[in-house]
Amino acid sequence: ILDGIRYQSKMLHYLLKDHQQVFLYLLTIGDTPADLHHTEHYFFQSLKLPMMFGAMKHLKKRMLEETGYASLGMANPGLVPGYPIEGSRDIFDSFGSAAQKIGLTMSKHNVMVPVFSSSGIFFEDRHHYCECSVCPIDGCIGREAAMARPEENLA
Questions:
Q1: Rounded to an integer, what distance in angstroms lies between the CA atom of residue 67 and that of residue 69?
Q2: Which of 54-58, 69-73, 84-88, 136-140 shows the lowest mean pLDDT across its residues?
Q3: What are the DSSP calls for 16-75, one per residue?
Q4: Distance between CA atoms of 105 and 114, rounded to whole angstroms?
Q5: CA 59, CA 66: separation in Å to the nearest integer?
Q6: CA angle at residue 67 from 10 to 100, to 5 degrees?
Q7: What distance in Å separates the CA atoms of residue 18 and residue 23, rounded to the nearest whole number?
Q8: What pLDDT does residue 151 have?
Q9: What is the DSSP letter of 136?
Q10: What's the rounded Cα separation, in Å, for the pair 128 and 115?
Q11: pLDDT tens track for 63-75
């Protein structure tokens, strides 16, 4: 149970058991400015993924500095086994009106808008877990670990 929300994922239980602190986060790079010309809009769109990767890298670095953890784990709804994308709604709701203040909304299908946004849980990584090992997006520029073979036991 985090922030009054019961999470059913066995993987989350394994990763977070015995932790005194976990940190929920919302991250967005915002929406595309409306006053861009066609070429500028195309250029801006091509930069969104690297900008998101850079923002996440900065957030992780800042979390490590603030917490003093040797290693930081991250669990994102939809990427951790047994932790569906609907978990984004719980994190989103935990922030109350702060999400709207940074221009972030949630669709009825639990998709954050703007699309280049992320939600998740940071925690002290005691199990050398990297969710990249279970993520199917092979070409991700933010990949930090190879995909695990299906027969490998992650927990």
A1: 5
A2: 136-140
A3: HTT-S--EEEEEE--PPPTT--HHHHHHHHHHHHHHHHHHHHHHHHHHHHHH--SSEEEE
A4: 7
A5: 10
A6: 75
A7: 14
A8: 45
A9: -
A10: 29
A11: 999 999 999 999 9
